[in-house]
Specification:
Layout: H1 2-26, H2 30-67, H3 70-87, H4 92-106, H5 110-140, H6 151-156, H7 160-192, H8 196-228, H9 237-265
Helix pairs in contact: 2-3, 2-8, 3-5, 3-7, 4-5, 4-7, 5-7, 7-9, 8-9
């Protein structure tokens, strides 16, 4: 409750400061404030839909893992928590791109925007690859030949079944980490470009498709297990993480497509240098996305 209250208070203070700064700089009237409010509400609604679809997918993976058995469920949750620990530091390049890109797009400086995005992607690749290798080393290496010899498995798995299940899952999770980091850079760049509705629509679509694939795999697994017992089972936590990878791969692909369109259509125009700052306008005359 305290954390939620602090977050709400800081957001309210930031909104009040932004409102004051905009009023002093642009002398907004009631009509302009109404337009800004509608724009912000639309963006917030789109991002809420996007975030909800992602959280639904993570909840679905947990539900499927729980139905695969105790050791599979435990391995999934241990892998997820340790994976998030190594993933979160890679958000830096994505946040930098989100903050710096809007000004370049507002000035229609597509060359500098492409350079910024390229540098953010390169930094993300290098940093996430280093963390992924560290994560994989801790998860897979341990000095013994047994399947449960990984250091993370020893630290977090209390029984042999969970430890044996966890080790290959950590390998797949480590491989997925750089992909998620790259996807963050691409999607945060779209946030900076104002492509909120596009992000919401594509995230919901890719998440739904991956969720359907995961559910189909689980139904096949359940049918096989009912018919042939353990020998008929086909889905493991490794499979769940593989479907996670397809979701992030799809999101990265559609984000790349939209960014290539934005950087191609927003061109540097010397006659426009004195235009309004902070307004994203492409060749179609459409603000944002």
């Amino acid at each position: 409750a305290g954390a939620a209250l602090a977050a709400s208070a800081s957001a309210a203070a930031a909104a009040k400061a932004m409102n004051k700064a905009l009023g002093q700089r642009f002398a907004f009237g009631a009509r302009e404030y109404g337009a800004v409010a509608r724009s912000l509400l639309g963006a917030c609604g789109a991002m809420l839909l996007r975030t909800s679809s992602i959280l639904f997918y993570w909840a679905l993976t947990a539900a499927v893992a729980a139905r695969l058995g105790p050791s599979q469920s435990a391995a999934h949750h241990v892998a997820l928590q340790t994976w998030l620990f190594f993933l979160m530091p890679t958000e830096g390049p994505a946040l930098a791109g989100q903050v710096l890109l809007p000004d370049l797009l507002a000035r229609r400086d597509s060359a500098q925007a492409r350079l910024l995005l390229s540098r953010a992607l390169k930094a993300s690749v290098k940093f996430s690859a280093l963390l992924a290798l560290t994560f994989a080393a801790l998860g897979l290496a341990g000095g013994q030949a047994s399947a449960s010899s990984g250091l993370l498995a020893k630290a977090f798995a209390l029984d042999l079944d969970t430890a044996t299940t966890l080790r290959p899952v950590l390998g797949v999770a480590a491989a997925v980490l750089p992909l998620v980091s790259l996807n963050w850079v691409l999607e945060n760049a779209l946030v900076g470009a104002g492509a909120f509705r596009y992000l919401a629509a594509t995230t919901v679509a890719t998440t739904a498709l991956s969720a359907l694939g995961l559910l189909s795999a689980f139904w096949t697994h359940a049918s096989g297990a009912a018919a042939g017992g353990e020998t008929g089972a086909t889905l493991t936590v490794v499979g769940i993480w593989s479907w996670l990878a397809t979701m992030y791969l799809g999101r990265a692909a559609v984000a790349t497509l939209r960014l290539s369109q934005l950087l191609r259509t927003r061109k540097t125009d010397p006659g426009q240098e004195g235009g309004a700052e902070g307004v994203l306008v492409d060749e179609t005359g459409v603000t944002g996305a």
